[in-house]
Amino acid sequence: MQAHHYAGLTPDVVLDAVESVGLFTDGRLLALNSYENRVYRVGLEEPLRQASADGHGTQVVAKFYRRGRWSDPQILEEHAFAAELAAAELPVVAPLAVGGSTLHEHGGFRFALFPCRAGTSPDLDQPGARALLGRTLGRLHAVGARQPFRHRDGMSKWRHGARARELVLGLGIVPPPLDARYAEVSALLVRAIDACMQSAGPVRRLRLHGDCHPGNILWQSTGPLFVDFDDSIEGPAVQDLWMFVAGSPDQMRREWGELLDGYERFAHLDAGEAQLIEALRAMRMLNHAAWIAQRWDDPAFPAAFPWFGEPRYWERHVDELREQLAALDDPPLLRM
To answer: Could you tell me which of 136, 240, 266, 279 has the fewest CB atoms within 10 Å of its CB?
Structure first.
């Protein structure tokens, strides 16, 4: 069996890659929590000039991109978007330009370097936190709406979850008889997603973070700091908002109201976008299972998700898809 390409990304290769752009490492190396790419915190002998006051100037974060996922123009467009946001004084972690470039190559691996920034997990139940997050996202989207992406994907490529469904079924990973149940409920869900999108009508598309959830935010004394624009995409604004709203219908309405109170000070949200939330949640559920399935040849995935191939996972997943189908018929946020 051929070794996965990340098998060649040894600690020595990581350190050599950082030094190949003119930085001097001190031997400190810590693997950070990342599956799609490989990300490390690397110690430096001398502080970076670009280090911010809240960060760790003697460390950088080195991100090694998965082979075959993004083209160079797509990665550079992600970097340019993050840099544009930073120039507009948005709290984002943008890649460092070293030697005139943000994208580098060493030993067959493409990589980028980022400043090491401090922060904690967000507690959005603190007074004013969700409104502050909304204001920051409103500012981010005001910049995102300035121009379209030329190379990055749009959400239309997801095909309302159909692409993910086809991938899972094509790989034959769902054990029988659950495979028939998955095929049935996922087909119903894709049709319900399509109907929801059609009902919502045309919505404005803009450049987004794309994977905006609490795990991609560091909370500082001044508020949120957005990291990891790897999934930056063009789509409706609500894609960057809905993952901060959960719970009972009453709780969802309260949290959505707090978020919008801040958001709409800086950006407009189309009235119909709220009805897309459950469709977007459904697509994420389908996409997540397909993502793990597609990456199963990467040893990091069986180690991180050992339950994925077991019947009990697929039984639970099928049940959750059925529950989501019901939520699409009766969206909790819109219940009166």
So the answer is: 266
Element (H, E) at 61: strand 55-64
Distance CA 217, CA 227 (A): 6
Report the top-level CATH class of 129-334: mainly alpha
What would the pLDDT profile of 102-158 be if each residue is shown by its tens digit? Answer: 999 999 999 999 999 999 999 999 999 999 999 999 999 999 999 999 999 888 776
Alpha-carbon torsion (47, 51, 52, 54), positive or negative: negative
Task: State the catalytic residue, choosing from 123, 153, 179, 211.
Answer: 211
Those residues whose C-beta lies under 8 Å from the C-beta of residue 122, and which sit 6 or more positions away, are 129, 133, 214, 217, 218, 219, 224
3-state secondary structure of 233: strand
Report the top-level CATH class of 5-117.
alpha beta
Signed CA dihedral, 145, 150, 153, 156: sign only: positive
- Which residue out of 12, 228, 270, 329 is catalytically annotated? 228
pLDDT in tens, 299-333: 999 999 999 989 999 999 999 999 999 999 988 77
Q: Check residue 49 and give its pLDDT.
A: 73
Q: What does the DSSP 8-state code read for residue 101?
A: B
Please indicate whether residue 329 is annotated as part of the active site. Answer: no
Q: Is 26 a catalytic residue?
A: no
336 pLDDT higher than 80: no
Residues of the chain with CATH 3.30.200.70: 5-117
Using CB atoms within 10 Å of the CB of residue 106, give its burial: 0 to 12 exposed, 13 to 18 middle, 19+ buried: middle
What percent of the chain is predicted at pLDDT more than 90?
Answer: 86
Cα(55)–Cα(42) distance, integer angstroms: 13
Q: What is the mean pLDDT of residues 87-105?
A: 97
Could you tell me which residues are beta bridge partners of residue 109? Answer: 106
Instruction: Give residue for tokens 């993910």.
Output: 164
Which residues belong to CATH 1.10.510.10 in the chain? 129-334
**SS3 call for 116:** strand
